[in-house]
Design brief:
Elements: H1 15-20, H2 29-43, H3 48-61, H4 63-67, H5 72-91, H6 105-120, H7 122-141
Length: 143
């Protein structure tokens, strides 16, 4: 697999599969709106930093819903989707937090995929995360 250029606008993800894995009707606008913005940013192939910021905002929007027993299961799926979008953007060169250029984007992407699968379930998210995990693993192995 070829490595994308730093700051790449192209996603590795099947965005339709990711979108279909989210139970939109069970989520409130407080979670849906930021996640839809993150998906739209990825679809429009915006710069990686912009995609990472939108995905991070979508992850943060799930925190309150994750604490609510009635919304927690659906919020886990939204968190997983946002984390995977964040992983993809981070791997492409988006800011992975802290603003430190020395932060290993491959490790940050793998960490985000790990959190997505821990939260949402490996069976549900492994296929969707696979292209990012493979690219991040290949990049980490070549260093």
């Amino acid at each position: 697999m070829s490595k994308r250029a730093r700051g790449s606008e192209t996603t590795l993800l099947n965005l339709e599969a990711l979108e279909n894995a989210v139970p939109w009707e069970e989520l409130g606008a407080d979670v849906v709106d930021p996640l839809r913005r993150a998906l739209d940013t990825a679809r429009r192939e915006r710069p990686a930093t912009e995609r990472a910021k939108a995905a991070d905002a979508a992850r943060e929007a799930t925190f309150e819903a994750l604490e609510d027993e009635e919304r927690a299961e659906a919020a886990c799926a939204a968190y997983s989707a946002a984390s995977i979008l964040f992983a993809d953007a981070t791997l492409a060169g988006g800011d992975c937090g802290g603003g430190d250029e020395a932060v290993d984007s491959e490790a940050a992407a793998l960490r985000a995929c790990d959190l997505a699968m821990l939260r949402g379930g490996v069976a549900e998210w492994a296929t969707i995360t696979e292209p990012v995990v493979r690219a991040a693993s290949a990049g980490a192995a070549s260093e």
